Amino acid sequence: MTTEPTDPGIMQDRHALLERSFIDEYIRSHGHNPAALHVLPADEAHALLKAAAIHAAIRLSEVESRAHYVHEIHGDR
Length: 77
Hints:
Shape: elongated
Structural class: mainly alpha
């Protein structure tokens, strides 16, 4: 049995990997190592992760919007 690339489970996994990449990118861009957040004070780490999650949500929304736009232009083939 083959798995279709449009399978919702696979797409969720891809979105999760992309989301994690956006979060890590945000944390690194603010001078921190994602693997070493435990050394930060709890309130600082929480604020950084919250901001990173918002950043990732915005970026994922952009990716999804672009994908829908491309799909509308090219239609089903």
